[in-house]
Design goal:
By secondary structure, this protein is an alpha/beta fold. The chain contains 15 helices and 11 strands.
Length: 405
């Protein structure tokens, strides 16, 4: 009897449930046919639980090969074609594509003027994409401090490598009456016959060091302002009888090729060697080894003392490992910088590059990795920058010396 009463009740309940489900959107699909999707839903804060600890997401790794593949790297030289800066840029461009991941095309672009500062300024502001690089001469701390056109700040740029400290020596033509600069010491106040050397402007590093030499050693020397410097310019200035002496580096190796007989016949001679004797100098093909009795430091020490030597070293910092230097623009990432530095280091240590360098440049390689230049050499200079600026102001009081701290 009880079963008969329950049966109609079950029918009624079933009917009501069906009607409710239908009103809510129909019969649901069987669970077995639906794959659940995880959705991030913020949960309500719980007063009794600690805040969730953020999870660090690793940054994607930099794929240097993918970044450089199919692209063109432009290397900017900051002195005219045919000179030392341009030759160095070309021998680097000739080899670099074989060592950069992705093997990009590499071309040289001339960006010269203002004693190399136009090129330095251009790279300072260039896109930091690893595709614009400066292979420079004369982009260094003293130039940054006192060159009128220098806008760059080397603390914001990234050095790649230094490979050729300056050979830098002063050459004299055969009609100069003093065999070496030491023979001219003290002759300025005695009315000795005067000689002339060039400088493009009053306020640059070339004028800085030679004005200091003239005053410190009492030299019978005048500076012909407005006469360009650099290897090509000095060669032409000698050709045109514009100056009697001139500072160069490439002339030691290059004049036997472009002006055969200049050295052998005595038309030019080494008047003073500006670098110290730790710098390895390969022989000249016409006259052999660099004279060892004409180093500026020795002459200054003998005639002016140790304090003067310290000043000379400070104002000729451009002759150090950043004489021939390679730069990336400000803002270049650590990843791009590392990729280029690694490629440059491998390239310059390769026989392929060294054979090309020896044949085309004829100078010796002295390599300084970009990490060392950035973290040791530059840091050392900028840690002492106030003393460097003070020395420069004393030597060139009329020049607009930048306040750097």
């Amino acid at each position: 009897m009880r079963k008969r009463r329950l049966f109609p009740l079950l029918i009624i309940i079933t009917t009501v449930v069906s009607l409710v489900i239908g009103a809510c959107g129909g019969t649901p699909e069987p669970v077995s046919k639906v794959e659940p999707v995880a959705t991030a839903v913020p949960s309500a804060p719980q007063a009794t639980s600690a805040p969730a600890k953020p999870v660090d997401t690793p940054a994607p790794s930099f794929d240097a090969a993918a970044h450089f593949k199919g692209k063109t790297i432009r290397i900017y030289a900051n002195f005219p074609p045919g000179g030392g800066a341009d030759l160095n840029a070309r021998v680097i461009a000739r080899n670099l594509g074989d060592f950069v991941p992705g093997n990009p095309r590499v071309v040289v672009v001339s960006k010269h003027g203002a004693a190399g500062q136009i090129g330095g300024n251009y790279i300072y502001n260039a896109p930091p994409d690893g595709l614009h690089m400066g292979v420079f001469t004369g982009v260094h701390v003293p130039a940054m401090i006192m060159s009128p056109g220098a806008e760059y700040d080397l603390r914001e740029m990234r050095p790649v490598i230094g490979w050729q400290p300056a050979l830098q020596f002063m050459a004299a033509r055969e009609d100069v009456p003093y065999d070496s600069i030491e023979d001219a010491v003290g002759q300025g106040s005695k009315g000795g016959e005067r000689v002339t050397m060039p400088s493009s402007v009053i306020c640059n590093t070339t004028s800085l060091r030679y004005r200091w030499l003239i005053d410190t050693l009492d030299l019978p020397m005048d500076i012909a302002y407005g006469v360009p410097t650099g290897h090509v310019a000095i060669t032409r200035a000698f050709d045109q009888d514009l100056v009697d002496v001139g500072s160069t580096s490439t002339g030691w190796f290059d004049w036997p090729n472009i002006r055969p007989g200049w050295w052998k016949d005595g038309y030019v001679r080494v008047w003073m060697v500006e670098v110290d004797d730790s710098r390895k100098i390969n022989p000249n093909t016409e006259i052999g080894d660099m004279p060892t009795d004409r180093y500026a430091i020795d002459i200054i020490r003998e005639h002016a003392g140790e304090e003067a030597v310290a000043t000379w070293i400070a104002i000729t910092a451009d002759n150090g490992p950043m004489w021939r230097s390679w730069w990336l623009p400000k803002g270049s990432s650590d990843e791009i910088t590392k990729a280029v530095r690694d490629a440059a280091w491998e390239m310059m240590n390769s026989k392929q590059f060294q054979d090309d360098f020896e044949r085309l440049i004829q100078d010796s390689l002295t390599l300084n990795h970009g990490d060392v230049l950035e973290n040791e050499y530059l840091k050392g200079i900028f840690d002492n920058i106030e003393n460097v600026v003070k020395s420069i102001k004393e030597i060139s009081p009329e020049c607009d010396i930048k306040e750097i701290s």
